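Private note to self, pasted from the team thread so I don't lose it. Backbone tokens:
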């Protein structure tokens, strides 16, 4: 059996993916992959996602330069979520979020509201031209 056949793809042929920083354990982002994206990720050793809005493969860092080197690819116990352990490249500390932050999970619930708890490391206007 092909290793990709073990993945439980959704109705659109996608699987949710969590990118976690290998060195710190920080959860950097959530995205989607189709079969081709997961295959290319394993083949290239860099994160390749599927953009649902653009309906095409999205090589992480293709516009921003914030590439994710993949060290480990894991599948959860139900075979329906992929975890990538990555090194986030392109800025120190690495920027994974299109808002210019280290992580996409920069808002924390406090007293009934969402509070921004991580700074912008680089202005997104200067990242995406």
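Design output:
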């Amino acid at each position: 059996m092909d290793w990709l056949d073990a993945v439980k793809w959704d109705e659109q042929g996608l699987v949710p993916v969590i990118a976690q920083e290998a060195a710190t354990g920080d959860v950097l982002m959530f995205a989607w992959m189709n079969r081709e994206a997961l295959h290319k990720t394993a083949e290239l050793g860099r994160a390749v996602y599927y953009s649902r809005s653009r309906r095409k493969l999205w090589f992480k860092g293709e516009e921003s330069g914030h590439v994710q080197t993949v060290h480990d690819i894991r599948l959860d116990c139900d075979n329906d979520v992929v975890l990538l352990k990555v090194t986030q490249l392109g800025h120190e500390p690495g920027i994974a979020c299109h808002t210019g932050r280290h992580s996409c999970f920069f808002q924390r619930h406090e007293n009934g509201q969402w509070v921004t708890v991580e700074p912008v490391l680089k202005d997104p206007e200067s990242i995406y031209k």
